[in-house]
């Protein structure tokens, strides 16, 4: 859809009609339940609900495959506005995006999760941390993998670098899309080494069914 002069990156009609999850209003939402017994999350949510061939998929594809960094930042800012109105994530002290492997980052040119996190950081006025977790193993695409295969694919792919920077912090771990949660769980396996660490989770979108 073409944009009018006053519209930036997303038309006003699309912005209004986005399928929001509103999970930040519910403690026992589907994402929280997804991680129950896997990650001790304080709060978990996603801005939008993913549906194939819908507006949300178009947004994600524009970000990921067309390099639309500004749209990713906008998604973060828009979500931050809703989180503030809902008084969600009040104890967050740092925002950490799921990192890409250096080879993937070089190929794609940017990390979509980081740019979404930048928008959240700006909107929530919380510092962005991109140095405490690094990706040490490149994984293949998760799209057509079954649940167990997804976990095998991301096992041991992250490494904690600056452990001392996270002690006693409440971090918001950010991904672009949550499906089975395997990537976020893999990140938690290294983060759980940090003393007195609390964790919450947010994403651009959540795929209700795969």
Q: How are the SSEs ordered, and which strands pair?
A:
Elements: H1 12-17, H2 30-35, E1 41-49, H3 55-66, H4 69-85, E2 94-97, H5 102-108, H6 112-124, E3 133-135, H7 147-154, E4 158-160, E5 170-178, H8 182-191, E6 198-206
Parallel strand pairs: 1-6, 2-5, 5-6
Antiparallel strand pairs: 3-4
Describe the structure.
The model has no long low-confidence stretch (mean pLDDT 88). This protein has a four-stranded parallel beta sheet. Helix content is 38%, strand content 18%. The protein is α/β, with parallel strands linked by helices and 210 residues long.
The N- and C-terminal alpha carbons lie at a distance of: 28 Å
Helix content: 25-40%
Number of strands: 6
- Reading the helices and strands in chain order gives HHEHHEHHEHEEHE
How many structurally independent domains?
1
The secondary-structure class comes to alpha/beta
Q: Can you tell me the residue ranges where pLDDT is under 50 for at least 5 consecutive residues?
A: none
* Average of pLDDT: 88
Rg over CA atoms, rounded to whole Å, is 16 Å
Outline the biggest β-sheet: 4 strands, parallel
Globally, the shape reads globular
Tell me the name of the CATH class: Alpha Beta
User: Strand share of the residues?
Assistant: 15-25%
Treating each run of at least 4 consecutive H or I residues as one helix, how many helices? 8
Spatial strand order of the main sheet: 1-6-5-2
Looking at CATH, which topology would you report?
Rossmann fold
CATH architecture: 3-Layer(aba) Sandwich
